[in-house]
Design goal:
By secondary structure, the protein is mainly α. The chain has a domain of 47 residues. The chain is built from 3 helices and no strands. The longest helix is centred in the middle third of the chain and has 16 residues. It is extended.
């Protein structure tokens, strides 16, 4: 993280939650809490991490990017 009051310190998390809300939550009919928890889990683990292509990763999925990237000498 960066310094206090830096506008970029939470940009990644803010971007993810904006996508989560627009793609999954807004427009979804009212459902019980347990069902919404399952929907969010499936969105993150199945769609966002495994199928959704990310422009920051050269339009690869997270799994494709991790297979191609070697993480040697990472602290």
């Amino acid at each position: 993280m960066s310094r206090k009051e830096d506008c970029w310190d939470n940009a990644v998390a803010e971007s993810f939650f904006k996508l989560l809300k627009t793609e999954l939550i807004y427009g979804n009919k009212l459902i019980i809490k347990e069902q919404m928890e399952l929907e969010i889990f499936e969105y993150i683990e199945i769609w966002y991490n495994k199928k959704r292509r990310h422009s920051a990763l050269n339009f690869k999925t997270i799994e494709e990017f991790n297979k191609l990237t070697s993480y040697k000498n990472v602290a």
